[in-house]
Specification:
The protein contains no helices and 21 strands. Helices cover 0% and strands 40% of the residues. It is mainly beta. Strands 3-4-5-6 form a 4-stranded antiparallel sheet, with no helix packed on it. It is globular. The protein binds beta-L-arabinofuranose (FUB). The site of beta-L-arabinofuranose (FUB) has 12 residues, from β3 and β15. The site of beta-L-arabinofuranose has 12 residues, from β3 and β15.
Length: 335
């Protein structure tokens, strides 16, 4: 806002209006959760669940949102990119949970959990496709990629959630997902069919929200974990492996439970030489609606590695990446 003092030339007040760019939460116009960042050239696309719960309702999510940024500090809303009923086989029960988009051969594939109509009731995983990372995505198959009846190792009904897709250095795509059981399956090069058996990965206190990435020759799997210490709230743990199929070695926690929500969900990328850790908390209020597990808000922090490849614990902050990365950590950034 310009400040004009009597008798003086006008001066400009450069103080920021509202939250600092890059401070948390990143998005303040809607309740967002389950961040899934995707780097496409010089742009990051951020796909999120869209919390619309009222009162004490736990989850009410019927579409997925997307945002884009060239610096991770200033975000442009791209609006909803898909609605749960864009999958004709899905129910309209507000079950649009954590999704992720990936790029393959110039197309963008959006893996999303939704509840399936009868008779194969329970969560299922669908695939959307688009020529544009900004969407909109349309059902790529006309049927679910994974249904409840295909997975029998763990819980019934709500175990086929939280898909993450990782394309290995040799071009092989892998799908990982699951609630209390961590499932892994190879995808065909067409990205919309499984290519082989569904296997399970054993991880300490695995709960949900897997996120796969690779740094140098090492594979990383971050996931939400509930143990007796956190008493019902999730924390983000991780494991490393020499290959996607394992063996996976538990490496400890990346960050602790989050503020105001018992869920937390990781999304990790390297962008312009810096690593970032996306998650959600529930500190945002919009009007009379206060943050809660059903009304979460996406946040981001810098992620640093030790020289041996282990991850330094992440502190969840209000400042986020509005402050520069720590210089002392620059040396440890590269594998
Ligand atoms: O957002 C709904 C569910 O809560 C997600 O699928 C989980 O990862 C947890 O964040």
């Amino acid at each position: 806002m310009p400040l004009v003092a009597a008798g003086c030339a006008p001066t400009v007040d450069h103080r920021p209006i509202g939250p600092l760019a890059g401070s948390n939460p990143l998005i303040t116009t809607a309740f967002t959760a389950d961040p899934a960042p995707l780097v496409v050239g010089d742009t990051v696309y951020l796909y999120t669940s869209h919390d619309k719960a009222a009162g004490k309702v736990l989850f009410a999510m019927d579409d997925w949102l997307a945002f884009s940024s060239k610096d991770l500090r200033h975000w442009q809303s791209l609006g909803p990119v898909m609605h749960e009923t864009d999958f004709a086989w899905a129910t309209d029960t507000k079950s649009a949970w954590a999704a992720q988009a990936v790029e393959k051969d110039g197309k963008f594939y959006f893996y999303a959990p939704v509840k399936h109509k009868e008779p194969d009731r329970g969560f299922a995983i669908g695939v959307g496709v688009s020529d544009n990372p900004a969407g909109p995505f349309v059902d790529a198959r006309g049927s679910a990629l994974v249904t409840n009846s295909m997975t029998t190792a763990g819980r019934d009904y709500d175990e086929d959630i939280d898909p993450t897709v990782f394309i290995d250095s040799d071009g092989t795509p892998w799908l990982m997902w699951g609630h209390f059981t961590c499932y892994l399956a190879r995808l065909k090069p067409n990205m919309v069919e499984l290519d082989g058996p569904i296997t399970t990965i054993k991880l300490p206190n695995y709960t949900e929200g897997p996120w796969l990435f690779k740094r140098g020759d090492l594979y990383y799997l971050a996931y939400a974990s509930i143990d007796e210490v956190a008493q019902g709230a999730e924390r983000i743990a991780y494991a490393t492996a020499p290959a996607i199929t394992g063996p996976w070695s538990y490496r400890g926690l990346i960050t602790g439970k989050t503020r105001n929500s018992y869920t937390i969900h990781p999304g990790i990328i390297e962008f312009k030489g810096q690593w970032y850790f996306f998650y959600h908390d529930a500190l945002l209020s919009i009007g009379d609606l206060k943050g809660a597990t059903g009304r979460r808000a996406v946040a981001v922090e810098y992620l640093y590695f030790n020289p041996d490849g282990t991850i330094r614990p992440v502190e969840q902050t209000d400042a986020g990446i509005s402050v520069p990365p720590r210089r002392s950590d620059a040396a440890a950034r590269r594998p």
